[in-house]
Amino acid sequence: MKIIKNLFLLLGLLAAGTACDDQFEDDLVRDNRPEVPVTFPGAMSVGFNPYYTASLKDTAEVTTGAAPTITIQMSIPENSGRSIQEISKIVVGGTAINAGTVSNPRIAAYAGPLPVVGTSATFTTPVRNFYLRAGRLSAADRQALGSVGYVERALMFLITLDDGSQIVPVQLRVRFTP
């Protein structure tokens, strides 16, 4: 019995020593860190995702005057040797959207591509337009708004650089306050 136990232990150690050769090297388990980092100047950050703030009052239909807007700035380092060619795709929705959502060819929130020249880009949209595309507030959202004081919607971008490579920066959020 002791020999069988030792034999299984030896086989287990041998299997464990050879089983981890290529583990954690495919696209499913790698970090989403682009070679050229994208930053969002002017965005706040508490925790992981940067965010901009907008008021739910700005989501009402504007009958007079200019509609309130959200202006999102993004940039890549000037010393990266690259420049932004275009914002190829913009996806908006709840905070569950991810890089897989961006790669889905059937999902796009804004007509694109948006041409860009240089290492920075600015995307401006009316608050109401963004709110309607990202999804109106549910009952759970309204409850969170009362207890937490805000509710969030998210954006993700597909950015094409001048060499044709594409990067998906971290999720950016818009925090709606009462």
Can you put this structure into words, describing what you see?
The chain is built from 4 helices and 9 strands; from the N terminus they run αββββαββααβββ. By secondary structure, the chain is α+β, with helices and mostly antiparallel strands. A hairpin with a 4-residue loop joins β7 (151-161) and β8 (166-167). The chain has one domain (36-177): Immunoglobulin-like. The protein has helices at residues 2-19, 99-103, 127-134, 139-147; strands spanning 44-45, 50-55, 69-75, 84-93, 114-115, 120-126, 151-161, 166-167, 172-177. Helices cover 22% and strands 30% of the residues. This is DUF1735 domain-containing protein. Residues 1-21 form the signal peptide. Keywords: Signal.
What share of the residues lie within helices? 10-25%
Q: DSSP helix count?
A: 4
Tell me about the largest β-sheet. Answer: 7 strands, mixed
Mean pLDDT: 81
Order of helices and strands: HEEEEHEEHHEEE
> In terms of structural class, how would the helical and strand content be classed?
alpha+beta
* Quaternary organisation: single chain
Q: Mind telling me the CATH class?
A: Mainly Beta
Protein name: DUF1735 domain-containing protein
Signal peptide: 1-21
Keywords: Signal
Organism: uncultured Cytophagales bacterium
Topology:
Layout: H1 2-19, E1 44-45, E2 50-55, E3 69-75, E4 84-93, H2 99-103, E5 114-115, E6 120-126, H3 127-134, H4 139-147, E7 151-161, E8 166-167, E9 172-177
Parallel strand pairs: 2-9
Antiparallel strand pairs: 1-2, 3-6, 4-5, 4-7, 7-8, 7-9
